[in-house]
Amino acid sequence: MDVLGPRIVIAAFDGWNDAGEAASGALAALRATGDYDLVHSVDPELYFDYQYTRPSTRTDAEGRRQLTWPEAGLWRPRDPAPGPEFWLLTGVEPARTWQAFAAEFIDVALRDDVTGFVTLGAMLADVPHTRPISIFAASQNEQVREAHGLEKSLYEGPVGILSVFEHFAESAGIPTASLWASVPHYVANTTPSPKVTLALLDRLEELTGLDVSRDGLRTEAAAWEASIDAAAADDEDMTEYIRQLERTRDTWDAPEASGDAIAQAFERYLRRRGDGPGDHKR
pTM here? Predict the structure, then answer.
């Protein structure tokens, strides 16, 4: 049996961990593949700052105004297919009491015999949109690293909710892995980023065997890339900058350099984000 076991939670959160909405987009794509039942949701009053993550309003079919509050929940497939069972943990990154937030979900995971935990994140990085999206795949669990050929992150510094979940899960005896995608920083305002979401799902399938239809996402990814190409064609400075990033990326892709280069870029990103205002950090 795989080290991650037969019942695996896939986790991603809106917010700091979700550049280009790529990680939350991956969870949304998984949710769209079938019916899921809510296993557990948190009380938003305990974990969210409404000045930072505000409730929203909408009008229902009867014309009544409804409030929707920030949320986070754990979902299980209603009719799981043969093989590993994949549960989804998603919602808004909390603003406070992270230890209680993580412990609440880990307690539920232990109660329901969850055997593995995979977190998905996306970071802004100095990478070109024209090349394959870099995925940094890591684990602090030696068995998981050996079984799947993952890196061990050597980063030291401020962390956020995904790292908190990894720590709490490992402490509870649930093996973990993390997948982080690099989003071209110059397209930060072009969301969502389907090419990045697609890369996360491709790597997630390699890691866990999770099979999800991605044909529509491939079409969206091609259109996203073409739209950035068109914008760059009208901007000489942007075109030259992308060429510089391409040369750097091609150097990274040399067999002797790629692993270290991606790891170093990931750690530089975390350090840059470590001194930001508000600090909803990884």
Answer: 0.85
Report helix, strand or coil for 23: helix
The amino acid at 119: T
Each residue's pLDDT tens digit, 12-43 = 999 888 999 999 999 999 999 889 999 999 99
Distances (CA, A) of 223 to 124, 193, 228: 20, 10, 9
Q: Is the Cβ–Cβ distance between 169 and 106 less than 8 Å?
A: yes
- Cα–Cα distances (Å) from 215 to 130, 195, 198, 211, 212, in that order, read 19, 12, 10, 12, 9
Kindly tell me if the per-residue pLDDT of 44 is higher than 80.
yes
**CA-to-CA distance for 206 and 272, rounded, in angstroms?**
30
Instruction: DSSP for 170-195, please give it.
Output: HHTT--EEEEEEEEEGGGTTS---HH
Map tokens 């000045």 to a residue: 51
